[in-house]
Amino acid sequence: MERITTTDEVPEQGSFLFTVTESDGREEEVILIRDSEDEIAAWKNFCQHEIDQRLDRGNGAVTRDGGVICPKHGSIFDGSTGYCDNGKAAGSTLAEVDITINRTDVYLTDDDLAFEHVGGISDDDMPGSSSHLGF
Ligand code: FES
């Protein structure tokens, strides 16, 4: 169980971005957001319509009424279920990440993921860059 951040760091609007490593060694971005009940939820940082479309492009995802809005085509994903019932991503659900809140700390409790660092994957590590050839 790895501590990601504190609940204070998860904004009312927008998102808190961090990077994890998948069990196969790939890096992936995750966002923490507040849903309409002010509960914190964690989702992998990509749209289900086009999976190379990030929801948080480094400046926080666009959120409204506890939902996450895809910056490309504007589909809105429910912040607590991840489900989308509108636009191009209708019928899809964001990829969930397991977290646990203990008092004011947010922990990563997803067995498939290891916490790397706060913030997004650095540009050097983006898919297609030479740094991935080692895998
Ligand atoms: S890429 Fe997100 S709705 Fe199209």
Question: How would you characterize this protein structure?
Answer:
With 135 residues, the chain is mainly beta. It has one domain (2-123): Rieske Iron-sulfur Protein, CATH 2.102.10. It has strands at 2-6, 16-22, 27-34, 40-44, 62-64, 67-69, 76-78, 99-102, 105-108, 113-118. The strands form 3 sheets. The protein has a 4-stranded antiparallel beta sheet with strand order 4-3-2-10, with no helix packed on it. It has a 3-stranded antiparallel beta sheet with strand order 1-9-8, with no helix packed on it. A hairpin with a 2-residue loop joins β5 and β6. The radius of gyration is 14 Å and the shape is globular. Residues 128-135 have low confidence and may be disordered. Bound molecules: FE2/S2 (inorganic) cluster. FE2/S2 (inorganic) cluster (FES) binds next to loops. Residues 17-108 form the Rieske domain. GO terms for molecular function: 2 iron, 2 sulfur cluster binding; metal ion binding. Keywords: 2Fe-2S, Iron, Iron-sulfur, Metal-binding. Pfam families: Rieske.
